[in-house]
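Re: Re: ligand-bound prediction request (bumping)

Still looking for help on this. To restate: I need the protein modeled with phosphoenolpyruvate bound, output as structure tokens. Inputs repeated here so nobody has to scroll up.
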Amino acid sequence: MRIPLIAGNWKMNGSLALIEDFGNAFSRTSFLSNAIDIAVIPPFLYLANADEAFEGTPVQIGAQTLYGEASGAFTGAVSASMLKEFGVHYVLVGHSERRTLFKEDDAAILAQARAAIDEGIVPILCVGETLEERDENRFDDVVLGQLDAVMKGLSEEQRRQLVVAYEPVWAIGTGRTATPEQAQEVHASLRARLRHYDENLADNMRLLYGGSMKPANAQELLSQADIDGGLIGGASLKPDDFIAICHAAG
Ligand code: PEP
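Reply:
Sorry for the wait, this slipped through. Here it is.
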């Protein structure tokens, strides 16, 4: 019912050589293209190269962020229509590194999600609690609050375009992974919250897990009832690891 999505967030890593390595690795791999969706999310500058290198494979490209305005005097920013011109299919919004290092708040994240949807790009909304918030047992409130902040600002039609990624901040890039039970618990809460909006939407929306997912733990995480894919950081930089995770999902 929900097609798994495996998305690799390269962050500020990679090179033309790595794009080529991935292009070659994907071309050699037999994917059941209708069984899973796959995305590679490199830095902006490499999007065109990635699109070309992955041609003929089922892998689609995504961007790591965008700006919520259509055009104008916003030095350094990139709009949804520009991403669309480069064949971008997905865009991350609300990644914890953007929330903390670049001070993006819920209003900015909502504007980004809307701008993406208006251009037919799928926003992957990242939500997640810090270690302190988990220790204080506030993770549900934090994560559901981040979800509501975007859901409430979207129309019914717009909501249907969204993918959500639960990424506990304490598990990102730390080598610490949420246990499958911890991840499933939050995913189940997210899905229950989505039911307040629309039963059908809740059944169909893809909820990804992100936070030190790797070949060794992917299968167990991905087999949880409400985990519909993964957002992968570190392990998405190695073709063999990333492809192994894709196979675990398919
Ligand atoms: C991420 O930042 O989206 C992420 C999940 O990173 P990592 O897999 O390295 O924890």
